[in-house]
Specification:
Chain A is mainly alpha-helical and 278 residues long. Chain A is built from 12 helices and no strands. Chain A has a single domain, classed as MetI-like fold, CATH 1.10.3720. Chain A is globular, with a radius of gyration of 26 Å. Residues 1-13 of chain A have low confidence and may be disordered. With 382 residues, chain B is an alpha+beta fold. Chain B has 9 helices and 20 strands. The chains are: A mainly alpha (278), B alpha+beta (382).
Chain lengths: 278, 382
């Protein structure tokens, strides 16, 4: 068998040409994509930029030069700093509580059949779709009629309440996609129910749990409407910023916004990388 | 290490244990309740599987074979009856405390763990010392030919390799029995055939009882020491592959395993433990059982046991007369479809060993003949 097997086709230049044509054809799409990105990023860019604004007036609307002054004096305004810590601690606490409770709700909904499953689904959906302002006012009337003093704890309860659905829904989606045989395999290999959950179920639904937790944190830290109804005399970061607009918002607010944004981006990147790995 | 490499993996194949079946099922029933109805998936199965045996549960989907296996594994509890592992009843013992392991059809590997960690999972649950875990996992990965893949994730392996990880993960625990639920179902034909040989080799090497659930009769015949053919929640026949193939006990078994020709005839004479049946014009079939004259008897004959000739065969052979309706040339053999004078459609396999030409053509009238011991009565239809 010495017959020639056919020369490889002289196709080397073809891919390059195709790529060039694709680039030309995709021009409209590329333009459109960048426009959307700009539209999304511009407000954030301005927020970050005005955190470096060397302003001397009460308002922070006009660019007056670059400074790191506001980063150095970030915590100079005591009530603003207190408001930020209130927001951060409420966000962290409510994220932890919401993630634990919401994960169990999500697993139950994704895995088991039980009486009241339909109602639970409905309630979760209602909590997501209910207008925030209505939820806020009804929470307020509930707290008033229960005679609960409004403040830090009522805000926390409200935040857990409106973000639990988001965690439950993301976890449920992950659980539904899970092969129940994998858990059976763990049991078969000698793992008890708790070990099976810790070593197999939880790691496998972790991406869902993490994105649920991120959502819960993001929803909590900048919530204004419901917080405004349920906070009593407690001031959170969004409430403080809203109140300050009447007298002039200090650049520290931009700096804090920038830092919260940076932490959010960092968490999102970490979560995306983890997600790709599994 | 090297000395023990080829020794069976069970620590103590003790003499006293040998007589005790690895797995025994006594009157096992499983009922499900759905929509107000009770459905019996398994309706009374008695089985004893010997230690070191390669045992197959064979049957079509919905025959109860998987349910039976899941009751042995501990994922389902029988509605009635008892499951014994090495003579001890395991009723009420959960899956994680039963000394059997399972290989799932979907492999069910842990996607977030490396191959090594997947295989080590069972040993870690038993608090096995670290050094021993490393040694046993490494040895098991050698047996399944996956040395060097310890740090891969399951998603980075091919289907066949994932299959072998699942096998290693179960076998490394040296279970009393290994339960395999259609483990080759997801593989393509070439790989499946290679894995059949591989499974048999591994079973010989580790000396553990294998219980193999499959709907593929070829697979069951190739690998098993014994087969239980299941249908409708019952064991239809239990025997070696040869017994099941050559002497099917029921119409279902005959039809499910390989190709069989179903013939019916009326008993015309009997005596001395045999009967002669009449089938169409000139059809004369001898069977090894006595029937009352006039009884309608059904029997099967395997296609490769039949001879096809133009002239009437000699005395002592069973024969039926018919007409060739189709000739299919298959390279190593030729299939002849023949409609008998008695109205049965039968197939005859003829090996293309010597004959350069077809022994018959379409439309020819021919005689089919076979030795009387190849007739198997599967029932008498009144």
């Amino acid at each position: 068998m010495t017959t020639t097997l056919g020369k490889p086709a002289a196709s080397a230049p073809a891919p390059a040409k195709r790529r060039r044509r694709a680039r030309r054809d995709g021009l409209g799409l590329r333009l459109y994509t960048w426009l959307i990105i700009a539209w999304l990023m511009l407000p954030i860019a301005i927020m970050i930029l005005f955190g470096f604004n060397d302003t001397h007036s009460k308002q922070n609307f006009q660019w007056e030069g670059f400074t790191l002054r506001w980063y150095q004096h970030l915590f100079d305004k005591g009530d603003l700093t207190r408001a930020l810590w209130n927001s951060v601690s409420i966000a962290l606490l409510s994220t932890v509580i919401t993630t634990v409770l919401g994960t169990f709700v999500g697993i139950a909904l994704g895995r088991f059949r039980f009486r009241g499953k339909g109602v639970t689904n409905l309630v979760l959906f209602a909590a997501i779709s209910c207008p925030e302002i209505v939820m806020g006012s009804s929470l307020l009337s509930m707290f008033v009629s229960l005679d609960l003093p409004r403040g830090y704890w009522t805000v926390l309860i409200a935040h857990v309440m409106f973000s639990i659905s988001f965690v439950a829904v993301t976890v449920r989606a992950r659980v539904v996609g899970l092969d129940p045989k994998v858990e059976e395999a763990a049991k078969d290999l000698g793992a008890g129910p708790v070990e099976t959950f810790r070593l197999v179920t939880l790691p496998m639904i972790m991406p869902g749990v993490l994105s649920g937790a991120l959502l819960a944190f993001a929803l909590s830290i900048d919530d204004f409407v419901i917080t405004n109804f349920t906070s009593g005399s407690t001031v959170t970061f969004p409430l403080w910023v809203y109140a300050s607009t009447r007298t002039g918002t200090p650049p520290q607010v931009n700096v804090m916004g920038t830092l919260i944004f940076a932490v959010g981006v960092l968490l999102a990147v970490v979560s995306a990388r983890r997600g790709r790995r599994t | 290490m090297t000395e023990t490499q080829h020794a069976p993996l069970r620590d103590d194949p003790g003499r006293a244990e040998d007589a005790v079946p690895a797995i025994e099922l006594a009157g096992v029933r499983k009922e499900y309740h759905a929509y107000g109805e009770t459905v019996a998936a398994v309706q009374g199965v008695d089985l004893a599987i010997a230690q070191g045996e390669f045992f197959s549960l064979l049957g079509p989907s919905g025959c109860g074979k998987t349910t039976t296996m899941r009751m042995v594994a501990g994922f389902e509890e029988p509605t009635a009856g008892e499951v014994y592992l090495l003579g001890e009843s395991v009723t009420g013992v959960p899956a994680n405390r039963r000394d059997v392991n399972m290989v799932f059809q979907s492999y069910a590997l842990f996607p977030h763990m490396s191959v090594f960690e997947n295989v080590a999972f069972g040993l870690r649950r038993k608090r096995t010392p670290k050094a021993e875990i490393t040694e046993r996992v490494t040895e098991m990965l050698r047996i399944v030919d996956l040395t060097g893949r310890e740090r891969r994730r399951p998603s980075e392996l091919s289907g066949g390799q994932q299959q072998r990880v699942a096998l290693a993960r179960a076998l490394v625990n040296r279970p009393r029995a290994l339960l395999l639920d259609e483990p080759l179902g997801a593989l393509d034909l070439k790989l499946r055939q290679a894995m059949q040989v591989e499974l048999k080799r591994i079973q010989r090497e580790v000396g553990i009882t294998f219980v193999y659930v499959t709907h593929d009769q070829g697979e069951a015949l190739t690998m098993s020491d014994r087969i239980a053919v299941m249908n409708d929640g019952l064991v239809e026949q239990l025997g070696t592959p040869r017994e099941i193939y050559e002497r099917p006990a029921s119409k279902f078994v005959a039809g499910f395993i390989g190709t069989s020709n179903l013939l019916a005839g009326d008993a015309v004479e009997s005596g001395g433990g045999t009967s002669v049946l009449k089938h169409g014009d000139g059809g004369r079939i001898e069977v090894g059982r006595e029937f009352a004259t006039g009884d309608k008897v059904e029997l099967t004959v395997r296609p490769e046991k039949m001879q096809i000739t133009a002239d009437e065969p000699g005395d002592g052979l069973c024969r039926v007369h018919g007409k060739v309706s189709e000739v299919v040339y298959l390279g190593t053999s030729t299939n002849y479809n023949v409609t008998t004078d008695g109205g049965a459609d039968v197939v005859v396999f003829v090996q293309n060993a010597m004959n350069a030409e077809d022994v018959a053509r379409r439309g020819d009238t021919v005689w089919l003949s076979w030795e009387p011991q190849h007739s198997y009565v599967i029932g008498s239809a009144e």
